[in-house]
Design goal:
mainly beta, two-stranded antiparallel sheet, 1 helix
Length: about 70
């Protein structure tokens, strides 16, 4: 059975102004909650940790762990 890129998680490199797709896919998994986030809806990530987040709240909580 062949899988399309919409069935697989993408691998991304996160930068300060966007991300670059390293391995094609349709979504990434939130690093904290494990929830799939479609690439077109991805708005929150950490450049330092190189991880995506499903929401602003999750991103903020994760950032506060560093303080």
């Amino acid at each position: 059975m062949l899988m399309s890129s919409s069935d697989k998680a993408a691998t991304l490199l996160y930068g300060p102004n966007g991300f670059r797709i390293v391995k094609p896919g349709h979504f990434v998994l939130c690093a904290v909650s494990g929830v799939p986030v479609p690439l077109e809806e991805l708005r929150y990530w950490s450049v330092d940790r190189q991880e995506p987040y499903a929401s602003a709240e999750i991103s903020t909580k994760r950032a506060l762990e560093d303080l």
